[in-house]
């Protein structure tokens, strides 16, 4: 039974950052969050044109977007991320919810960022380590798998790929909608239930992740390496 969002969430005291909101499930998440009247909904966007189109999309449902802002940021550029963070700290200074919605499907291709880093290395491990570090600060973290959805997640793939074709075909036949995928991600985050931090959710339901995600030594090492990379690039 798919999870469903309530109609009466009140986010009027919440400042929210939502990444990856110009396409796919991110766009639907923006629509849901906007409908719950957040204090400020800040959407980082690499493509300004797509950001403006998102504002028009949201405006069509409510008549205004006074509490929605599109800020320039490229997640594949560390300096761009740092500039965004500094601007946010200086101009806003409060944050109640950060939704890191971003992902690509590249098969065996290795794609690099502007800083010559592999385009996406992440996982549940970082989220669980962050939950341990913040466990006494009343900050909770969650990892989410939205489900199998036909979006443009594989748009960076080059050439013909049997595996990509197979996945896209299966997504068309058995996948869920982008709207349901957005619901699956937001449901645990907005739920009023007292949830334990660091948990993993698949289609909105708590699940057990790969056992590697519980390895604290690996998590600490990954965090340490990540910090070192940021130091080497002058970010911290």
From TrEMBL:
Protein name per the record: NAD(P)-binding protein
Keywords carried by this UniProt record: Oxidoreductase
UniProt KW ATP-binding keyword: no
Record-annotated membrane-spanning stretches: none
The keyword Oxidoreductase is annotated on this UniProt entry: yes
Pfam families referenced in this protein's UniProt entry, alphabetically: adh_short
Alphabetized GO MF terms: oxidoreductase activity
Domain of life the protein comes from: Eukaryota
